[in-house]
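User: Okay, second chain of the day. Same drill as before: sequence in, structure tokens out.
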Amino acid sequence: MNIEQLFPKKWLAPDDLAGHTVTVAIAAITLEKVRNPRTNREQDKLALTFHGKQKRLLINQTQAFAIAGITGSKETDTWPGHLITLSVTVAHNGAKTFAITAPPDPPAQAPKPMGNGATNGTANGATALAPTPMGNGATNGAIAQPAYTATPTANADDDDDADADDDPDPGASIFGDDDTNDTAYTGRPT
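Assistant: Same drill. Structure tokens below.
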């Protein structure tokens, strides 16, 4: 019997990623009182909860400012719904920690011919106008870092075995996937 199953940890640790980089959606942010092992005193820390995952992540100041940069807001109330990418890095003190970055952009699609000499919505061979910068990193009114709508998806079964009728979830073993809150991200801003 694995002792990790007997004594599960509620906080995500760098070794839990096992060398993987994962993209997750922030579900909630709370302020938690935790014991600082160096001072043996309680202190307040921000804790992130992720859609469909059991383990939570305690973040430090550097990580909090990284998320603020990704979301475009220093207000933690606006962070839920945003995607972030977690990977393991080494801190200045030599300890493993999490690097928090913006998720990679989806691959760009090439313009598709429309059959009338136009491409992607331009009519009669007209040329599409160039995007206009909006001053916020977005163009033509688009949101620079949109939040994503989480949509619950039904599992084919809840039997916890790895078979063909289960949705593949590379983060399942990393976060202790609860197998009841699997989430699909529609890519539409909320």
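Helices lie at 3-6, 61-71, 172-175.

User: Thanks, on to the next one.
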